[in-house]
């Protein structure tokens, strides 16, 4: 048995802690080099690098954790690879091949096995693959050289001290333009959301609900998580839009709803005006799986969900327990969802 690092897992927050190894591969002269693990966490890049001048950078977010029977696993890494391919194409970056992406992720987790929190701690090892333009660019064009990297950082339990449903405001800022870049996981979508989230926090809200920028009548997502709603008769509804990021957690939850819980699930346009018709609301993403939303505030008008401000609604809770059970190995997973990591 490999020795775990001496970390107070239960009290970890969500922050960067340097681990021992990271993966790095460079793209140069039209091809990816083999790449490999390195202990060097710092980068030296030219002052005129594409990422620094024109924000040519994309990323992914995933987790590694220990199952009930002591295996280290990660969740659907093939989907992260495919999504990063979409992001790369939209920003004129080279695609890091899917098999190599998965291999790099598994290798990096394996090399940092001592940082994968034990089963039952609630903590996980967050995994961050990313890619950026590394060569100098001053005239506006894609960089010629890129670096793909994967680093890991242990993060604490999301629901520390119990579940606290979120209070969300309808934002006056827009997140993504129609036919823009809302559907890719790029740093640029986050840079422009920082002002809105700082302002939301200053006003006492946890998150922003962004509406479709074209008509401002339909629900899109928050800065970093997709919405999931439950109707009063127990049907799961998720917003459909070309400008939201296709959350792997949300897509998995919809499949869990249908195949494990026998619920109806529908992906369709969701209007702000119909929010009061829903019984439950949650935010889906890798970090929390689902965080319940207790209340949405639209310019003073409060829309409260039946789940209330103290606990998850019953359907949200079942979805959460089933998906985390699948991830932790206590419920049988669909083929290919849970991928084991061999530690070095
Ligand atoms: C990463 C992200 C999500 C969540 O996606 P998961 O694959 O479930 O982690 C949702 N919205 C945005 C904008 C994101 O960047």
Question: How are the SSEs ordered, and which strands pair?
Answer:
Layout lengths: L21 E7 L2 E2 L3 E3 L11 H5 L2 E3 L2 E5 L5 E4 L1 H14 L7 H14 L12 E10 L12 E10 L10 E5 L16 H5 L2 H9 L4 E3 L16 E6 L4 E4 L8 H12 L5 E4 L9 E8 L3 E10 L2 E4 L9 H15 L9 E4 L3
Parallel strand pairs: 9-10, 9-15, 12-13
Antiparallel strand pairs: 1-2, 1-3, 1-8, 4-7, 5-6, 5-7, 6-17, 7-8, 11-12, 11-14, 14-15, 15-16
Helix pairs in contact: 2-3, 6-7
The protein binds pyridoxal-5'-phosphate (PLP).
What does this structure look like?
α2 packs across α3 (98-111) and α6 (248-259) packs across α7 (314-328). The longest helix has 15 residues, at 314-328. The model has no long low-confidence stretch (mean pLDDT 96). With 344 residues, this protein is an alpha+beta fold. It has 7 helices and 17 strands. The relative contact order is 0.16. Strands 1, 2, 3, 4, 5, 6, 7, 8 and 17 form a 9-stranded antiparallel sheet that branches. The site of pyridoxal-5'-phosphate has 14 residues, from α6 and β14.
Order of helices and strands: EEEHEEEHHEEEHHEEEHEEEEHE
Beta-strand portion reads 25-35%
Q: What is the distance, rounded to the nearest whole angstrom, between the alpha carbons of the first and last residues?
A: 11 Å
The unique ligands bound to this protein are:
pyridoxal-5'-phosphate
Low-confidence stretches: none
Average pLDDT number: 96
The secondary structure category is: alpha+beta
User: Any idea what the shape is?
Assistant: globular
Number of strands: 17
Estimated radius of gyration: 20 Å
Number of helices: 7
Largest sheet: 9 strands, antiparallel
Helix content: 10-25%
